[in-house]
Amino acid sequence: MGGNVPALGRKPAGTVAVGEGWQLLTIRGIPLRIHPSWFVILLVATLAFQQQYALTLGNQLAPAGLWAVALVTALALFVSVLLHELGHSLVALSQGVKVKSITLFLLGGVASVERECDTARGALMVAAAGPAVSLVLGVSLLASSHAASHATPILGQVVEQLGALNMVLGLFNLLPGLPLDGGLIVKALVWQFSGSQRRGVEVANASGRFLSLLAVGLGTVLLLRGGGIGGAWLILLGWFGLGAARNQKQMLIVQQALKDLKVRDVAQRRFRVLEADTSLRQLSRLRLGTAPPIGEGADGAPPSEADGNALPDWLLVCDRGRWQGVIDDSPLQALPVQCWDRETVGDHLQPLASLPTIRESAPLWQAALQLDDGNHQRLLVLSAAGLPCGTVERPELGDAVLKKLGLKLPANLLTAARRQNGYPLGMALGQVARGMVSSGDVTALTDPAGR
Which of 85, 116, 393, 396 is catalytic? Predict the structure, then answer.
């Protein structure tokens, strides 16, 4: 589903964002939304049906009647699309996967899910559910078209039209390439037999890219031969398919980067070191920026606020070269000013173990997972000897992964990410890491710090 495809075609994951459009209603707790682009395809479908009915029903209906029947057929077709996506969504719910929304848009419909299924069997069931609904609808409608035509020829034609279209939608979505349902089925089958979800994605993505290029080529030939809207539609579907294939390839690169890169590759030094006998008065001046530097900030610079970082540097405390703990501003808030000269930071230490930590040798996916699952803003990086040697935050993780994608982030965007303490460009590396764990691509550790 993360590219769960609409019955009228597929879209690259992320083309329609959750929350876009207008919410009409809720089905089993799933919001149903209408994207503005849906009205375009509704108009096109209505025009197409009107032209067809003008040839077959022109002597039975007035022009206004033809338009009304065409509109009803188009709306009924999108009810079929909705049922297709509901098939995916209800099976996903049965597999414990939360469905955020179903959105009808230009190319049909898309169901947005929180994550993929944990097992290949579950992914196969979810992928197959949509085409199964469309095929069952198609067979049922075609089987009832004769009885409907006895009631009225107009109803018979509408039922037959919808039955044929549902058959086409179901069979089209079974084509074996991402982001079609058939591609998701191929991915699940390869995953099941190879034990590797990544291998399944690679095979299905390659197949999807081939089908997309074929669609673009056939569409171009049709256009050159006067195929009109059919050729243009094929080119549009192929273009969206190529976009989905590109997105999937980038996701594979991101996952590989999170496995290959180590925490030491991105660690900064966003902590400062104080001696245990430093007075609270000096601590106060340091926080106000009026004291001379005591220790170093990131890359030897003053406190990290100067380079756009949202968080003040951690203040770690040593006593004659031995790590003692960490100090925050709580003593300054709890004690009267008169006590600041005789009280020292050593009197108010918290243990280093109170900070979230991670080994410098850990892969980046563990850091992304720990930052998100623990809702931490920063991790303390520990050396092989278990001593503090740096820190890691979301902006640095995102910047390193983007470089693996061949993208150099402009300094102003990285500074903005630091101010918000978030991933650049809205990257969701924590979700990617969770997907890697749930698919078995990596094995989560109970204690990334290695304690």
Answer: 85
